[in-house]
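Because showing beats explaining, we let one protein speak, sequence and backbone structure tokens together, and leave readers to judge.
___
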Amino acid sequence: MTRTTRRLVRPLGAGIVIAGLASGPAGAVVGGAEVPAGSAVMVLSSNGSLCTGVVLAPDAVLTAGHCAAPNLEQRVHYRDEAGQPVLAELKARAVHPAYDAGAIAGRRRSIDLALVRTAAPLPARLAPATLSAAMPRAGASLDLAGYGAAKPGDPRSTGTFRSVALPVVEPHGPSRILVWLRAAGARAGACAGDSGGPITSAGGAVVAVSAWIGGACGGLTQGVLLGPQRAWIDRTLGGWGLAARWQD
């Protein structure tokens, strides 16, 4: 990891976050285009930070581990049929046992994943995503999406779900845990607020979730592959009486 590696949490005051989200279309994902949110929601923390999450069951959301800090309260954010913001309370959360909050500074391996469970079911229109255990290699094209900033340092550019197609790169050789994405030309990629966002294959199945960027927004983006963590995902959801949808 480089010294410029940064997580994709978007730190904002809680009031600023909600005001910005309620004001209408903004931006997210540097170089991306607005797309339907589908199975994506936002995960907001009591310190004002913003992350993206992926619905896996009517009341379960997958996100990045650093988006579910145990010393903070989280809420799942979505919009109702009238377009008004809703903050859903949680009744459970599980951070991957191999998540290491100090991994970036210490250059250690970390499985940056968490599952949160809402106290009440989410709207049916937020259909659970399909997950994939695929292991994409260099040159493959994946879609990176999230609610993060389209303009670095501009909190008003968060809150719209956007996506960009990026090629897989292997700066450290093939990995059985992580995937890296980087645009070949113009700057494009994840930014603050995109942590926990889906990284999908051409068929739409989620193969990884975003975890951090190396350097400035739109640079090298790292995601945590879901296939190697399938046992933990299935075991955690099973303990809640739920199950994820995996692509055969």
About this structure: The chain has two domains: 36-128+229-240, 140-227. The domain at 36-128+229-240 is CATH 2.40.10.10 (Thrombin, subunit H). The two ends are 33 Å apart (CA to CA). The chain is about 10% helix and 35% strand.
